[in-house]
Amino acid sequence: MLELAILGLLHESPMHGYELRKRLLALLGAIRAAFSYGSLYPTLKRMRQRGLIAEEAPAEGTAEKGGAVKGAAEKPLLTGRRARKVYRLTPEGKEHFAQLMAEAGPETADEALFGVHFAFFSRTDPATRLRILEARRRRVEERRERIREALARTAERLDAYGLELQRHGLETAEREVRWLNELIASEESRRPEQRNDFGDPIAEPERHQAAPAQGTPDPAASAGDPNKQGKGGMRDG
Amino acid sequence: MLELAILGLLHESPMHGYELRKRLLALLGAIRAAFSYGSLYPTLKRMRQRGLIAEEAPAEGTAEKGGAVKGAAEKPLLTGRRARKVYRLTPEGKEHFAQLMAEAGPETADEALFGVHFAFFSRTDPATRLRILEARRRRVEERRERIREALARTAERLDAYGLELQRHGLETAEREVRWLNELIASEESRRPEQRNDFGDPIAEPERHQAAPAQGTPDPAASAGDPNKQGKGGMRDG
DNA sequence: GTTAGCATGTAAGGAGTTACATGATTTT
DNA sequence: AAAATCATGTAACTCCTTACATGCTAAC
């Protein structure tokens, strides 16, 4: 999960660990608490060893080594503070990210993992988005049915608090299903042809990098406006 | 968490592992998935070693078909199926449960753990309930504020999906705060004197945690209709 | 002159999961 | 005859957290 989130964020621009954590909190804070450094740094290390990310050269263009010491004007990379390791995404990392995103198995439907996937939806293709949303909906519907059963069958064994827990849980599940339904409808209405099984008729507007190991045409350039068209985008029509 | 849940359930009646898991799913299914046997059985073992639970002897005059209770009595009771180990709560276990419930630290405020505490609210005193509810509210309010800040400060860096994630997360947090507010108000209105700082005026009649019929108006009696009105479920009127 | 923030890391451990192993009994 | 349900357990592993260790700079 953390790995996916790192890959997703680095898609945007190279970053060092500390910054990554802050961005992670800002992006995923609605879902879960901040990742600790105790998991972040070892994960970065592992990912670098696997070649998913790479350490960015100290500076852009300027001194290769030695030469001008820090403290120079310019845009200081290690300005006084402790040296930071800036990581960038490698092509392998991009591909791994695409794979992780495309796997819409039962794990993908877990609350937190679903949230991470969702956060990076603009970097996947519509078909994958739909599969993930549907997997999550299935999961929540199952939970909803379980609660309904528990209420119907064993309500008499529950005390007031147990009952309230079920009631609130049921309401929460129903609310999330409604939300997912809206999102799914929105995805489908946006590109209904996407769902046919005759291939991939669409290829025009989005250049999502789901394509395997395509060059490195810096898709970060499009990071500013994938689907961004204002408020109404998500919410039904 | 699993330990707390087991202690809470065994409060009701002795049970074996398999049954425990089913009851756990029925009670906590609204919050989280079922615990796996791979964690359940080792946990039971550990708890027995610590003396929190004990293996129930064949107990009660159990109708031993054929009347032969003799030497085979030492063998676990097997009703045809594989031998089951029935566990019951020990006094140490009861005390440990009370302690775990009373700890309303920051961990208690985690979604799942809060849910487990809540499920067993009727086995704690009102002051503890209030502390747990307030700890959870604090936590959710913090998350809500974080999201608001993220929306105010970095909304322009978010794409449509990132934005929708924040929006939905904010709505979820606001909804939960409202729910907690209702619960807190309900607890306070039920016994306002409870909150004074001059001691514990209602400390006398409660042995440990039990005696729900005494400590509370036992609104569990109204558990007959699960599909009652959505709002104000806890208000016993 | 101390606190807060920046910055990276390691070691130990918690709390679960999956997969495996075994076997009886009831239902289809 | 096969599948589902009942029933208990172990081993390996995942993924994350807490606590510790280090050291610099800005601000109060």
Describe this structure in words.
The structure is a homodimer of 237-residue chains. By secondary structure, the first copy, chain A, is mostly helical. The first copy, chain A, folds into two domains: 2-105, Arc Repressor Mutant, subunit A (Orthogonal Bundle); 125-189. In chain A, 49% of the residues lie in helices and 4% in strands. The first copy, chain A, contains seven helices and three strands, in the order αβααββαααα. The first copy, chain A, has a three-stranded antiparallel sheet. The longest helix of chain A has 31 residues, at 160-190. The radius of gyration of chain A is 22 Å and the shape is elongated. The model of chain A is unreliable at 60-78 and 197-233 (pLDDT under 50). At the A-B interface, α2, α5, α6 and α7 of A face α2, α5, α6 and α7 of B.
Topology of helices and strands:
Two copies of one chain form a homodimer.
Chain A: H1 2-10, E1 15-16, H2 17-28, H3 37-49, E2 53-55, E3 86-89, H4 91-102, H5 111-119, H6 126-154, H7 160-190
Antiparallel strand pairs in A: 1-3, 2-3
Helix pairs in contact in A: 5-6, 6-7
The structure holds a DNA duplex (28 and 28 nucleotides).
